Amino acid sequence: MDAKISVSHIGGSVAVPPSKSAAHRAVLCAALAGGTSRIDNIEYSDDIRATLGAVRQLGARVSCDQTSVTIQGCGGGFATVTRPVFCNESGSTLRFLIPVFSLTAQKIRFTGAGRLFARPQEIYRALFTKQALRFEQAPDSLTIFGRLRPGVFTLPGDVSSQFISGLLFAAPLLESDSTIQVLPPFESHSYVGMTMDALARFGVRTAQTSGPEGKTILTIPAPQRYRSCNMSVEGDYSQAAFPAVLGTLTGGVTVTGLSPDSHQGDKVILDILRRCGGKFSVSADGVRFERSLLRAAPIDLADCPDLGPVLMAMACFCSGTTVITNAGRLRLKESDRIAAMQTELAKFGGKVKSSGGTMTIEGGALHAPETPLDGHNDHRVVMSLAVAALGAGVPALIRGANAVAKSWPEFFDAMRGIGARVELTGTEE
Hints:
Layout: E1 2-6, E2 12-15, H1 20-32, E3 36-40, H2 46-58, E4 61-64, E5 68-72, E6 85-86, H3 91-102, E7 108-111, H4 122-130, E8 134-138, E9 141-145, E10 152-156, H5 162-170, E11 178-183, H6 189-201, E12 207-210, E13 216-220, E14 231-232, H7 237-250, E15 253-256, H8 269-275, E16 279-283, E17 286-290, E18 299-300, H9 308-315, E19 321-325, H10 337-347, E20 351-355, E21 358-362, E22 373-374, H11 379-392, E23 396-399, H12 411-417, E24 421-425
Parallel strand pairs: 2-15, 3-14, 6-7, 10-11, 18-19, 22-23
Antiparallel strand pairs: 1-23, 1-24, 3-5, 4-5, 7-9, 8-9, 11-13, 12-13, 15-17, 16-17, 19-21, 20-21
Helix pairs in contact: 1-2, 1-6, 2-3, 3-5, 5-6, 7-11, 9-10, 9-11
């Protein structure tokens, strides 16, 4: 699908979709619980559909309504897995479920799409090897065999927090207590906090303390049981970043559906915008963003890597030079997001340089791209390029715009709702 963006007058209100991160966690906890849970305010993105399909294979019974899902959990009584577990392109689905599916003590083959198996899995490989369990990765699949055992797990803190979360989901169902030692620096710790919050909501106890030499110690008593729970998924700050940045560039955009008390790490988008001169106000109706003269400020992505692409786009509009650090993990996502954004922003005249995990962006006026933009099969790249075009007030054509289905299928409809002139071609709308 291609998205043809024309010069538009932006203004109005955007309701952000539910947090994909929170939804993954709620679905998995509900699937592991005894009894029936209802999860409201859910959006069936490709990633969430992958997790729902996987928990069905665990033995959970799933019933989907338009904006809610009812899950009768397996309560620890796992089904016989008779076919590969398809994770699509979802790193969360795969990494959350590897330790959980090991508890079935069955031979499990995970499959996926896109760059999923190009993303590192060495943390689990080392852990499984240490316990003499089978862990085999091929270019298009990953196979495990053997039941995870309790113990002390030591993990580096500068890798994806998904590995830590995966162990947190599985450890309460083991025969005895486990401890996860996270070595400094502990990046993306807010995502681990979201996992612990989800566990607590479903009746699972965990504890976090500080250890020697800067370690973070996570203690998980076992055995425990997950308890069913009815809940509503909060709005997604990582998705809110796109209309938020657009609102500071054009003015008059209100973002609704966000919890002011959220523990999402991507809530830092508000602090980043404020430091860059972004003007906004918070009320009961949502967060209203006004047109702002943005200025460069240092940006650290250690705890908010998903914000990287849209912040690179935003930096092109800031006066001065923006330095973005700790962005190395962006190279291991659905695309190499650093290279993708550097290439595509250059088509606007954006001046982006990169060295390892550091990006330097010089602000300046953007012009209409003379050639089509490439979405690089990456939802966050597509949405960031749309923000760049709409914010600059220039026409643009984005190839592969259907990638937004991974996390926000209605993104372009939402943009139309605030005045964006977008024509989608190559598929039925």
